[in-house]
Amino acid sequence: MTVNGANGIDTTLEIARAARGASLELQAASLESKSLALHRIAEQLLKDKETLRQANQRDLDEARARKDKGELSEALFKRLDLFGPDGSKFETLLEGVKDVDKLADPTGQVTYACKLDDGLDLYRVTCPVGVLLIIFESRPEVVVQISTLAIKSGNAVILKGGREAAHSNAALHASLTTALSSLPAGSGVPPQAIQLVSTRDEIAALLKLDEYIDLAIPRGSNEFVRYVKDNTRIPVLGHADGLCSIYLDESADTAKAVSVVVDGKTNYPAACNAAETLLVHENALSTVLPEVARALWEKRVQLRCDTPSHGLLSQLNPPSGLLREATPEDFRTEFLELVMAVRTVPSFADAISHINTHGSHHTECIVTENQKQAEEFMRKVDAAGVYWNASTRLADGFRYGFGAEIGVSTNKTHARGPVGLEGLVIYKYKVYGSGQGAGMYGPSKKKFLHEVLDGREELQRRPGLA
Amino acid sequence: MTVNGANGIDTTLEIARAARGASLELQAASLESKSLALHRIAEQLLKDKETLRQANQRDLDEARARKDKGELSEALFKRLDLFGPDGSKFETLLEGVKDVDKLADPTGQVTYACKLDDGLDLYRVTCPVGVLLIIFESRPEVVVQISTLAIKSGNAVILKGGREAAHSNAALHASLTTALSSLPAGSGVPPQAIQLVSTRDEIAALLKLDEYIDLAIPRGSNEFVRYVKDNTRIPVLGHADGLCSIYLDESADTAKAVSVVVDGKTNYPAACNAAETLLVHENALSTVLPEVARALWEKRVQLRCDTPSHGLLSQLNPPSGLLREATPEDFRTEFLELVMAVRTVPSFADAISHINTHGSHHTECIVTENQKQAEEFMRKVDAAGVYWNASTRLADGFRYGFGAEIGVSTNKTHARGPVGLEGLVIYKYKVYGSGQGAGMYGPSKKKFLHEVLDGREELQRRPGLA
């Protein structure tokens, strides 16, 4: 079954083709066109507020019934709500559209300019990736967030949301395409740029369409990301879960350790950037760990400790149920709740080795007053984020100043860490020649000049380059 | 069967683990260490010249026997020769090692620096990808070229060469690991950084090891690249074949058209950046095409023409066998020989549409005197290289001034076009804090400053950042 009730493969093929066609138009859309599109979207969402509220209410009603039967968690139910108790969530959503409009254009940036020869210039210019496939769960506002990021970066997008938000997603999608349909002809931002599919069956069909889709971003469980990677040739930006560690070095400052560990573990335990493992240098066991443990216990965090740390902490009169022996599995577990594994390491090198073996390459932190040690840690730990004396919870596109994020990547190609607009562009090489061929250059022929030019100056000289 | 004659899976797992271990050391190797490693490699290759010559001779002898039986082409046989008739190929190889040493370090570059708050700084610093898997054919000097690029960019590499060059590859690999073994302890460039596997069976096993291998670069046929993409979760940098077009616009200059088309088609027809399709605006048919066709015929190029161009060119007294009617298949064919498909298009938009539908997103060219048209072409054509009045054959890392290339990518993520050292690095975010947590910021709490800093100045202030 599909959105149109037609044959799955045919319909997804049509959807992918339409998105590809729209993406080719978007390649040449001006910043002004994209900005107008975002304005119209904000206006249309406001106009459609009541329709959106009704659609969202249908999802909420169906979800409440499932929640009452115990099929849906309270947290998931809350995330479905597009408006919030006071309507502030919807306001925030509209503000978000305007914020994306204010971000710098990630396309048309000249990142390399080189005079190859007289009358032969080479430019590397950023451009949209093409067609994105984004698969996400529950929160319906993601439809708007991702669509606006896609438009701003000149990409078409195929969205697949969770079925529990189907009515909200469809209403939001209708609102977005209405807004884009109102644009003047030839604006370069056609309504086909945003496609919505609604059933899981369509994912399998879409994953085969590598001819039309350039990048897949599955936002979901680790298993789902692996399923996607196993079933497609499309490059996957893996927004995998995070197993983040904090290492308390022998010279760690206790106050900083308390602040960083408590925030890392308790600020939002269900997030992928929450800390799961606490590594403690054996010389910091009796000096730093006790105060950290007391602060965590105060927040009701259960500590699962290896033998040395358990021995020490059991003398501190731990609250009932908040101290137990760790199993090896605990050091490979993303708890996502108020539980933390604690392990003693005999050396700095062992901490790094533990992290590089057990971690998920997401965000890893060292607490130390020794700058040399900190910088060695940041160099040797293989992760998207390496932190010195700061909570892993800071790993986030908004906090990094990107204005918005499409997700967090633990990939080691294309884009890593929180991914903002820059992760949605690639580049093309543009060559301005005057009839040159490769055969004119070589031994005893002409030589290439390879004179690196200033990209900004070139853009002033050749405004059509962008 | 494997290099060690042991169980395939176990051995490839050991190889991948060794490479991963080496890559973690390489993450922290200094520029001086990497430079010393490259020096030692050049020295060792020179020392081993006779051994290498003997190994290469064995491959050549075996290949000659296969060539005589018609199992191997002359071109492939020639590419096996590591020394060339006068030994100059070997000299070029040694020069290449020194050239890579001279290239700028692609790692440790600060590409974003932002003061998040007082005492809380964020940096995006380039770093190695990790472990590369590179699969290539015939030419044994690729072992050295890729290994030196990997070392310079701080990556470990697993190499799989063609079986016809097995002796040469093994001898070169031995020479490289001897050189790295001679480095002082703790240099950060361990001999395990370069791994060689020799059988096709091992590829399948390696493709499953996404836990250890970060990027696969298959250099070979389109089918082989698709096989790799279908059988791995590892990101693949597709060095696919190229179906490049040249479009003669109605305002094309005839002399430039002749130069660009003749070079694009005949400079090296077997290359992926050679031109395969010639699109001609109908208004340029009688004005520009005749001279272009005569020049191509002079180079013995067969033209496979659509009806209008065939009608016109048949009046020019074409040399026997060099003009025939095109089939639809001809416009989807990468000939890689002296054959070119010719199609008439009624408009500029049709040329773009033909290219975006039939092309392989490699390198596409417009010949025109109309700059506005040229820039619109370069914006709307979805390809790694978009050229105005220059031969597609210029699409090459050396010609672009990268100093070296690992291949050409038609991917639309990570790296596109000729890939030099920059395509072998990614980045990590480094945060320097003083105890901050995410919970300190927000409405009615502290605000982030997001003050963008100058990366170079920050690197001077904090040399340990790189």
Automatic annotation (TrEMBL), chains A, B:
- Please name the pathway: Amino-acid biosynthesis; L-proline biosynthesis; L-glutamate 5-semialdehyde from L-glutamate: step 2/2
One BP term from GO: L-proline biosynthetic process
Keyword Oxidoreductase in the entry? The reply is yes
EC number(s) reported in the record: 1.2.1.41
PROSITE patterns according to UniProt: PROA
Assigned keywords, A-Z: Amino-acid biosynthesis, NADP, Oxidoreductase, Proline biosynthesis
Q: List the SUPFAM superfamilies.
A: ALDH-like
GO cellular component labels = cytosol
One Pfam family of this protein, by short name?
Aldedh
Q: Which reaction does it catalyse?
A: L-glutamate 5-semialdehyde + phosphate + NADP(+) = L-glutamyl 5-phosphate + NADPH + H(+)
Domain Aldehyde dehydrogenase, chain residue ranges per copy:
14-297
Instruction: Give the enzyme's main class according to its UniProt record, as a single word.
Output: oxidoreductase
Q: What are the GO MF terms of this UniProt record?
A: glutamate-5-semialdehyde dehydrogenase activity; NADP binding
Task: Give the protein's biological function.
Answer: Catalyzes the NADPH dependent reduction of L-gamma-glutamyl 5-phosphate into L-glutamate 5-semialdehyde and phosphate. The product spontaneously undergoes cyclization to form 1-pyrroline-5-carboxylate.
> Which family, according to the similarity comment?
Belongs to the gamma-glutamyl phosphate reductase family.
According to UniProt, the name of this protein is glutamate-5-semialdehyde dehydrogenase
Q: Which organism is it from?
A: Gonapodya prolifera (strain JEL478) (Monoblepharis prolifera)
